[in-house]
Amino acid sequence: MTPTLDAIEAARSRIAGTIVRTPLLELQGTTGPKIFLKMENLQPINSFKLRGAANAVAMLDSQKRALGVWTISAGNAGQGVAYAARAAGVPCTVVAVDLAPETKIARMRALGATVVKASWDECWEGLERRTFPGIEGTFVHPFDDDHFIAGNATAGLEIVEDLPDVATVITALGGGGLVTGVAAAVRAKKPRVRILVAEPETAAPYARSLELGRAAAFEEWQPSFVDGAGGKSIFPRMWERMRGLVDGSIVVTLDETRRAMRLLAERSRVIAEGAGALPLAAALSGKVDQGPIVALISGGNIDLATFCEAINSVRI
Fold first, then answer.
1. Reading across the β-sheet that carries 138-139, which strands appear in turn?
2. In this structure, are 197 and 303 located in the same domain?
3. What percent of the chain lies above the pLDDT cut of 90?
């Protein structure tokens, strides 16, 4: 289901005391269509995931909360659920992808979560089954969940309110919960806005799915510093959710992503993780001609050593 405007507005009221209404800032010094940055890296957990997690946890009844909550995450969703669970006074467990940066693991633990590491394949299978061996409690799906998506959608409301003439919105694609929510909100207010996703060349299952006309796997998947986006496949349910909402995918190289990270640091003094910089890389690719463009900077949780290595390896 696509969240209704009423559900999105209700989510906004529900999470208003938890999340930050992040700024929308114009990126200076570029040519072509104007580019604006939706700064979700400025949320309390430095990621948009707090929006969806706060709404999903708030919507649990007292019996489900009493069981404790758990999720599966590469890092940012785990922080969001842990933050929301701590505020609700309930225990939280995160099954974390073992490739997740130590920065994200440490922050999940600092928020009170018990962290259990597992392989990417084990985590992906757990997301499909919604169970994981040895983990008990109430599962909060990090993207395929109506309440999580409605929370994410609140960022879309803010975009159209702050930039009424927006023509194109670009988000990174992980599981699909961000773009599904943002697209639902933006299209409810501005039906003609184009909605695009950005994927890294090493993990572009949505582009592959669009080519084949069905939810498909990306057999050439490789891990990279872009750990918060790009899966091995598209969940069939998320494929159905995105149909009619998402207009296409822009696949960018890892070097284009590094350059976008460097540009954000040099021009805006912003630290963005790889997934957070993907939309800007797509906006700068020359493949988007309808502006103004909003690039949603989804997060800034990255090891500083990895960040420095990435931006020092390229020039603008």
1. 114-118, 92-97, 69-73, 138-139
2. yes
3. 88
